[in-house]
Amino acid sequence: MSKTQDLTCMLGDKNFEGHSFNCLPIKGEHEVLQVLVSDWEDMPIYLTVTDTQILCITYLCRKDEIKQDQLSNLNELLLELNVSVPLSSFSLVDDYYVIFGALATTSSDEDICKELVTLAPNAYDALEAIESYLK
Amino acid sequence: MSGVFNKLWTALRGGVREIGDAVVDANGVRIFEQEIEDARANISDAKRSLTEVMANKMQAERRVKELVDAISEHEAFAVKALEKTDEGLALEVAEKIAKFETEKSEQDAIVQRLDRQVDALKNNIKNAEKLIADHERELSIVKTTESVQKATEQVVENIASNNSTLNSARDSLDRIKKRQQMRQDQMEAGEVLEKEFSGNDLDTKLEEAGIKGGKVDAEAILARIKSKKES
Questions:
Q1: Structural domains in chain A?
Q2: Is B158 part of the contact surface with chain A (CB cutoff 8 Å)?
Q3: How many Cβ contacts (< 8 angstroms) between chains A and B?
Q4: Which domains are delineated in chain B?
Q5: Nearest C-alpha neighbor of A58 from the set B152, B180, B173, B175
Q6: ipTM tops the 0.90 cut
């Protein structure tokens, strides 16, 4: 069984800190798992396993949704917030602002669950922080 | 480390699709992986040589120790021969000692040479291990970048094939706010219901106290019917 299949089984049965996980594999050559954390379903988390890491990514918004004259202010805000945000960091992937967490492939089930239930509310808060920079 | 972050940044800026080729080496990831494999093979060769060299060294050291013992033994013999004033025998022993000492200095030289080889081999192994760790880290940066890009493409394509787009931030915010509003409404509705229930509670108390309403009671009905009949 692949790592993402393992994770799907593990997360399907879990109830972690009062949250459950709804997993949906995304079709394609690369293994990607969509995870919805209960109570925070509006910000899906996309989980990818590489040789060295488990990456959990939530797409916040496209670059072109931001007021163009506010881009550098937003970037500065996100850099300044980066260290304070628990477990998650901000990044740009192609044209998307994302918030993500990276774990070692040796992480325990608990670590992965903790990451997911931390990332989801972080994504909500991040979106609120970004709101005033939107077009 | 050859500035992998700078190369990565340049590649991303340039919109390069095959990040690996642009960052790791002009020849790409495959050759880079081959280099790592070669370095691993070198390490296992070096480790094999190292065991051989160390075995040889132990052998030479053992010989040196034997010679040291033989020399001191023969020195004692020479002393005894001199005590017996047998100059001839003493000289013969001394000649033997000279042979031992020649061999010992040869073996000492061998031990020193092997020591230097051990150091050199250990150094090679350490350097190869560092090189592998560096290369692997660099390769992992590149591969992760590619994985993330591919995953993003897949997510975007998948959502597009379901006739929707990856949520815009506005849509997400709207939905989140609606959901929060709904939760708020549910909480308020819950409070209203609770009040009604506690209102019912009051009704029950009033009924029990005979102040309000009252039970429908068969005897009372019968009495009512009787009184109607009589009138």
A1: 3-133 (3.30.1460.10)
A2: yes
A3: 82
A4: 4-166 (1.10.287)
A5: B152
A6: no
